[in-house]
Specification:
The complex is a heterodimer of chains A (175) and B (623). With 175 residues, chain A is mostly helical. Chain A contains nine helices and no strands. Chain A has a domain at 66-174: HPT domain (Four Helix Bundle (Hemerythrin (Met), subunit A), Up-down Bundle), CATH 1.20.120. With 623 residues, chain B is mainly alpha-helical. Chain B contains 23 helices and nine strands. In chain B, strand 8, helix 15 (446-454) and strand 9 (459-462) form a beta-alpha-beta unit. The chains are: A mainly alpha (175), B mainly alpha (623). Chain A binds chain B through residues 50-51, 54-55, 57-58, 67, 71, 74-75, 78, 95-96, 99-100, 103-104, 106-108, 110-113, 125, 128-129, 135-136, and chain B through 370-374, 376-377, 380-381, 384, 414, 416, 418, 442, 463-467, 608, 612-613, 623. Chain B: It comes from Periconia digitata.
Chain lengths: 175, 623
């Protein structure tokens, strides 16, 4: 997977030649995104370049990246504590809280463009409401709890994955 | 040296001195008469300059001597056209000639005069030099005077604008007090209504409701008649409520006016462009006053300048020829004095109107968002658009902030937040304020959105928002703060009648079960499909209502439930509907005929948007 990503990243920002996910990103964002964070293996699937790029644009200093870095690192701790709370709520079978936590993390991950985490959080939100993952069909509480367990684990994994990418981006570039 | 003798009829000193010089035989080796006696020759330039010139002319400058000769129309004799091109007196000799300057002919010397044009020329240049100097003096005096004037004006203007802003602040403060009183009154009213309703309900329990239960279809009609019955005992209350809502409307008018005045003065200060297009906007139903207020400020100021500047200029003896200049100065100057006044005017708003989106002043934005990431990014974007941002961490904080009377140009509101959700928050704010509120949410299904609008929100910004999306929102809803006013009228479209909406909102709390038919058709305590509290027995419900009324808004519950506790209120809302009939009418009408459709739709909104985790009453479940 990493291989494929590298290939894509190396390709020029010609929308027509890239896949659907990259077209939207590369057509609207400058080539820097291809050289920057999107070149890091794993970034392609986990981060929406367009969204993340507009946050990077807000950095006053392109080398320090104080603003986006602090936001991203704050998000890390926010996510950590949210996953912790999810764990406790899962034990106490507090579906309502789980749904709220899912929504909460969904908002910030969406704002940062961390698409995978966002999608999982949305599922957590729905399962907490005792709905299926699209939020349309009802499911039982047991079903919900079961799905919540796996989805939270999945979200965590996805979070760690994107955390790695982001840290690489900031520490590799900043240091 | 010789300027004194220039005009004399007898031969000039210079010429006589010149003649005398040539009569000194001891100097013949240096300067002498020419061979023909009609010219004189300076043989040794150096010696002549050093020794002879000082003796006769009190200076030792050969160039001056030559210049002087030229003035008296002596000419240097050139020998170029002679055979050898050499002067007969030697290569370094200077020979000068004048037709009347001849050896042994002293009388002819009288004919030698300074050249006519030369003296005249010197005269005129002298005059020219003198007159401009006088003009310069006058001009600079005038300038100094004008500057002094301007300073006086400037300080006067600053003083006035400080006073003005002080007055404005005072008035705004007063208005806030009035608004607060208003809220207290409303709370009291709500409380009284509830008590009243409960009393009547208690005395009446069972009877009308069972009837309704049977005849759900005609529920609306039932309520009408029922409400009329109920209306009688509570008519003083009803009356009070009506009065209150009317005064409330007035209160809502005024701050708008002031705000506009504020904006006007800022605009006038910042850029002296008259902003007529914005007047048009201000002619919204909510504010008929501002145009006149604004223009009076405007004309007064110009009048001041006129009166002050002109007379002072004249008393300073300013040449009428320059009056145009003087007239112009004050008009081109005001931007300068205006600026300091401006900053004093609105301390927190640093005037950076020239920047990016081109605001007249920095828009004040309230960002209501519980998620720190979104809040920070949102703030950052807004900051990039040169807005001033306050943020509230949840709805409760937002309401509190608004209740302190702080004015914003726009509120960006997250929907799902702890303590008090965005819809409820909007709802509460709408009872005393009409600032545009934009929902910022990822819940953007059409039923969600229509619910946002129903509760007084003006627009929706889907999350995750983009910079462009945010900017578009700002430009759409803050068009009146744009320098070049691109004339949008967003409020007119979205919230056509702020007053009506506000009043209506008071009654619309029952919205989940919008149509009376459903409400009363089910059972008295299921007025609200939203809150599980409502699924209790009437008495309990009423208690909950009381509790709610006290703290304005229960967390996680539609606050409005309290309002429609009594059939009398239903009556009221029916009236309100007649007054401000829009949107609601449809649901009402259709609610009467076909209760399934709209009722379901509205309940669906609540099921999805506001209270997602709550298990729903099957009756109210659309799916």
């Amino acid at each position: 997977m990493a291989r494929a990503d590298d290939d894509k990243a190396a390709a020029p920002a010609a929308p027509a030649t890239t896949t659907t996910t990259t077209t939207s990103a590369s057509s609207a964002t400058p080539a820097t995104s291809e050289e920057g964070i999107m070149a890091i293996p794993g970034a392609k699937d986990t981060i929406d370049a367009l969204t993340f790029e507009q946050i990077l644009e807000m950095d006053d200093d392109e080398d320090e990246r104080d603003f986006s870095k602090s936001i991203v690192y704050d998000f890390f701790s926010q996510a950590d504590s949210t996953f912790g709370k999810m764990e406790t709520s899962l034990e106490s079978k507090d579906l309502k809280t789980l749904s709220e936590l899912g929504h909460f993390l969904k908002g910030s991950s969406a704002t940062l463009g961390l698409t995978k985490v966002k999608d999982s959080c949305e599922k957590i939100q729905h399962f907490g409401e005792k709905k299926d993952e699209t939020g349309t069909r009802d499911i039982t509480e047991e079903e919900g709890l079961e799905k919540l367990k796996t989805t939270i684990d999945q979200a965590k994994k996805e979070f760690e994955e994107v955390e790695k990418v982001l840290k690489k981006f900031y520490e590799g570039e900043g240091a | 040296m010789d300027s004194g003798q220039q005009g004399s009829n007898s031969s000039s000193d210079f010429v006589r001195k010149l003649y005398k010089m040539l009569e000194t035989p001891s100097d013949e080796s240096v300067v002498r008469w020419g061979n023909d006696g009609d010219s004189f020759v300076v043989l040794e330039n150096e010696k002549f300059t050093k020794h002879i010139l000082p003796k006769h002319f009190k200076h030792s400058n050969f160039a001056s001597f030559v210049r002087q000769l030229n003035k008296y129309d002596f000419h240097k004799v050139r020998h170029n056209n002679e055979e050898n091109g050499q002067s007969p007196y030697g290569p370094g000799a200077w020979e000068f000639k004048h037709p009347d300057f001849k050896m042994n002919n002293k009388d002819a010397l009288d004919n030698i005069r300074r050249k006519a044009p030369a003296p005249r020329k010197t005269n005129t240049t002298a005059e020219e030099m003198i007159i401009p100097a006088q003009q310069m003096d006058m001009m600079s005096n005038q300038l100094v005077a004008t500057q002094a004037q301007l300073h006086a004006l400037e300080s006067r203007y600053n003083e006035l604008s400080i006073h003005h802003s002080m007055l404005l602040q005072e008035v705004i403060g007063l208005q806030k007090t009035v608004v607060n009183h208003e809220h207290v009154m409303q709370n009291v009213m709500t409380f009284l209504h509830n008590i009243d309703a409960q009393r009547r309900r208690d005395s009446r329990m069972g009877n009308p409701f069972s009837q309704n239960g049977v005849q759900a279809q005609n529920g609306a009609v039932e309520i009408q008649s029922q409400a009329q019955e109920d209306d009688i005992p509570a008519s003083p209350l009803q009356h009070a409520a009506k009065l209150l809502s009317e005064t409330n409307a007035d209160v809502m008018l005024n701050p708008r006016n002031l705000e506009h005045m504020n904006e006007m003065s800022i605009r006038m200060n910042g850029t002296l462009t008259t902003p007529p297009p914005d007047f048009i906007r201000s002619a919204r139903p909510a504010s008929r006053g501002p145009p006149s207020a604004g223009s009076s400020v405007n004309s007064m100021r110009i009048g001041d300048l006129d009166n002050l500047v002109y007379p002072v200029g004249q008393t300073n003896g300013i040449d009428p020829t320059f009056s145009e200049h003087i007239n112009n100065i004050p008009y081109s100057m005001p931007p300068k004095p205006a600026e300091p006044a401006d900053t004093r005017f609105q301390e927190p708003r640093k005037k950076s109107a020239q920047v990016d989106p081109g605001w007249v002043r920095q828009p004040q934005i309230l960002l209501v968002e519980d998620d720190p990431t979104c809040r920070r990014i949102g703030s950052k974007f807004l900051h990039a658009f040169h807005c001033t941002i306050d943020s509230a961490l949840d709805g409760l904080e937002a309401v509190n902030r608004m209740q302190t009377g702080k004015k914003y140009d726009l509120i960006l509101m997250d929907i799902i937040m702890p303590n008090l959700d965005g819809v409820s928050t909007t709802h509460l704010i709408r009872q005393f304020d009409s600032t545009p509120i934009i929902a910022m949410t990822s819940n953007i299904r059409s039923d969600d959105i229509s619910m946002y609008f129903q509760h007084g929100m003006n627009d929706v910004l889907p999350k995750p928002f983009t910079k462009e999306g945010l900017l578009q929102m700002l430009e759409k809803h803050l068009a009146h703060l744009k320098k070049t006013s691109t004339h949008l009228q967003p409020d007119g479209l979205v919230a056509p009648q702020p007053l009506a909406t506000a009043r209506q909102i008071l009654k619309e709390e029952d919205s989940p079960a919008k149509s009376p038919a459903t409400t009363w058709g089910n059972s008295p305590n299921q007025i609200t499909g939203v809150s599980p509290v409502a699924n209790n027995v009437t008495d309990e419900y009423m208690h909950a209502v009381h509790a709610n009324a006290a703290n304005y808004a229960p967390p996680g519950q539609m606050p409005g439930n309290m309002y429609n506790a009594s059939p009398q209120m239903a009556m009221q809302s029916a009236q309100a509907r007649q007054h401000a009939g829009h949107r609601r009418q449809i649901s009402d009408i259709s609610g009467g005929d076909d209760m399934n459709n709209p009722a379901k739709r509205q309940q669906a909104m609540y099921g999805n948007g506001v209270m997602p985790p709550q298990p729903m009453n099957p009756m109210q479940r659309p799916r």
